[in-house]
Amino acid sequence: MKLIVGLGNPGAEYARTRHNAGFMAVDRLKDRYAPGAMARSKFGGLAVEAVVPPAAGGRGEGAASEEKCVLLKPMTYMNLSGQSVGEAVRFYKLNPEEDVFVLVDDVSLPCGKVRVRAMGSAGGHNGLADIERVLGTRRYGRCRIGIDAPPAVIPQKDYVLGRFTDEQMSVMDGALDRACDAARVWATRGITAAMNRFNADGPEGASEE
Length: 209
Fold this sequence. Notes:
By secondary structure, this protein is α/β, with parallel strands linked by helices. 36% of the residues lie in helices and 20% in strands. It has one domain (2-198): 3-Layer(aba) Sandwich (Rossmann fold), CATH 3.40.50.1470.
């Protein structure tokens, strides 16, 4: 069992805001791999089990198998995301370094760019900071989804809680697909394969057929 977490805030007022890019990615994963399944209230969030099919192999990569994953959206609000993640990790007895992958918005990346990391600092992101606090480690996989830096005249909090512009949404659709592809490669081939495949320069990155 592996855990794929999308970060965001619950409630209609936050739907499709920049800070909810992680929620949007997990919703797309559910549409791909668990269509019609009902998410359950569990671990202080909404959870659904999905079977992720093996990603195609790259050069030098062997065969891969399908992987059973829990797709989780914490309902704790962003700053307490670690509570939900920690409950799921303890319940399934997961190793964060190998079994946890977080999809998260990032103001330091251009809108539409995705970047996969095996570990790292929270970078000022309160959701990641709380996960690190609860798990006691920075060593867990994450896919950062670029949402652009805020203009100088807009406070960062207001920017991330605002909705994407039409121009941003035109590139976010592809970014969410790539984030889902990265989660699939991570789940079935591991973090190194995901980093190698999705950390190419340019917003187009890579895609998984």
